[in-house]
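Query structure, 180 tokens:
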């Protein structure tokens, strides 16, 4: 019965607003080696699509190709990873020009983050939590373009020794369709 009342169309929000978002994250780490000897660089492009289910609750999917460059002494290698899954978002503050939210994510990836290094392994599952804000960028007209600033921290669910976690800052834009 709770599901029925939550999803009824009379709540005025169910499936009437959608959002497409895109963000970039750049991470680097020298793993405390001498300057110039080693550098791990990672560029993540996160794309997500969410739908508003209720006044403050969103549900969606995300995909993130991850491009890594490793410079070890004079040798440079590259690696490509991926991350995809579900995202939920709850708006703590939901104003027309500003939102403050917390989110939860569940992802599958081929990126295994260990304490000493990263490697490729299929079937790695992450559970993450984060927070962020959306600021309206276009005050005139349709008022549907937002700047998003946030972070999330994801933990590996697989039983793996010396596993680490994945922290991502978010700096991107979101475009909304439908009811505000």
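Result returned for the query:
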């Amino acid at each position: 019965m709770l599901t029925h009342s939550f999803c009824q169309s009379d709540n005025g929000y169910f499936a009437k607003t959608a959002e497409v978002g895109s963000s970039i994250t750049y991470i680097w780490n020298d793993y405390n080696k001498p300057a110039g000897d080693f550098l791990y660089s990672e560029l993540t492009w996160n794309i997500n699509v969410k739908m508003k289910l209720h006044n403050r609750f969103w549900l969606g999917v995300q995909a993130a190709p991850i491009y890594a460059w490793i410079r070890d002494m004079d040798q440079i290698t590259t690696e490509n990873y991926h991350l995809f899954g579900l995202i939920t978002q709850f708006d703590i503050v939901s104003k027309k020009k500003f939102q403050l939210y917390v989110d939860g994510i569940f992802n599958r990836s081929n990126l295994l983050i260990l304490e000493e290094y990263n490697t490729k392994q299929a079937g790695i599952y992450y559970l993450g939590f984060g927070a962020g804000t959306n600021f309206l960028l276009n005050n005139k007209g349709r008022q549907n373009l937002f700047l998003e600033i946030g972070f999330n921290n994801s933990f590996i669910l697989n039983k793996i020794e010396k596993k680490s976690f994945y922290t991502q800052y978010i700096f991107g834009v979101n475009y909304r369709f439908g009811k505000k």
